[in-house]
Amino acid sequence: MYFELSTNENLLMKKIFLVLMMMFATTCMFAQEMLRVEVVNIKKSSGFIRVGLFDNEKDFLKKAVLGKSVSANEGKVTVVFESIPAGEYAISVIHDENNNEELDLNFLGIPKEGFGFGNDAKGAFGPPSFDKAKVKIGEAVVNNVITLRYF
Predict the structure, then answer these.
(1) Which residues pair with residue 134 across a beta bridge?
(2) Per the domain annotation, does 22 fall within a domain?
(3) Which domain CATH number covers 67?
(4) What number of H helices and E strands is found in the chain?
(5) Distances (CA, A) of 39 to 50, 91, 132, 133
(6) Could you tell me if residue 10 is inside a domain?
(7) Whole-angstrom Cα distance, residue 18 to residue 53?
(8) Number of domains comprising the chain
(9) Cβ-count burial of 46 within 10 angstroms (0-12 exposed, 13-18 middle, 19+ buried)?
C-alpha cells in the first residue's frame, strides 16, 4: 500500500532525521570509554598503587594526562578509568610504598619500589617505549593486566 506524506509531515520527518543524525555525530565525536587496569604481584599492603596514562611519546613517564591512586593491597588491585576520550594511551604503574608520589631509585638508578607498564611491556636497560606500553581506547571496555616487578 502506498501513501503520501503532506508537506508538513515531510518537513517534520526531515527535522527528526536531522536531529537524530546530529545526536549520533555528537556521540561519536565525543566518545568516552573505560579502561580497567588490574595490577598483580603486589608484594606489600603499604602505600599506594599509582597508575598514569600518557597520550604521547614526548610526555611518556613525565606528564600523565590522567592518573589514579588506590591503596595497595598485597596480591592485586583493580583501577578503573571511566569517561576516557577515545585514543591511544601508554600505561605506567608504580607501587609507591612510602607515599612520596614518585618511584624511588637507588644510587645506581634502579627502582627500589615496584613498577610496571601497559601490556606488561618490558624495556631493555630502562623503561619500554611508548608504543610497547600503549593500549587503544575505543568502542569497548579495555582490560589490561600489569604485573609489578621488584628488584
Answers:
(1) 90
(2) no
(3) 2.60.40
(4) 2, 8
(5) 10, 11, 17, 14
(6) no
(7) 37
(8) 1
(9) middle
Helix, strand, coil percentages in the chain from 3-state DSSP, rounded to 5: 20, 40, 40
Tell me the average pLDDT across 108-128. 95
Range of the domain at 80: 32-147
Residue 135 maps to a domain? yes
27 domain residue, yes or no: no
CB atoms within 10 A of CB 97: 19
The vertex-100 CA angle with 59 and 98, nearest 5°, equals: 130
Q: What is the full DSSP assignment across 47-61?
A: SEEEEEEESSTTTTT
Res 109: pLDDT? 92
User: Which has the minimum average pLDDT: 63-67, 88-92, 122-126?
Assistant: 122-126
Q: Could you tell me which residue, 2 or 145, shows the higher pLDDT?
A: 145
Rounded distance, CA 76 to CA 40, Å? 4
Average pLDDT, the chain: 88
Predicted TM-score (pTM) of this structure: 0.79
pLDDT band at 14 (very low <50, low <70, confident <90, very high): low
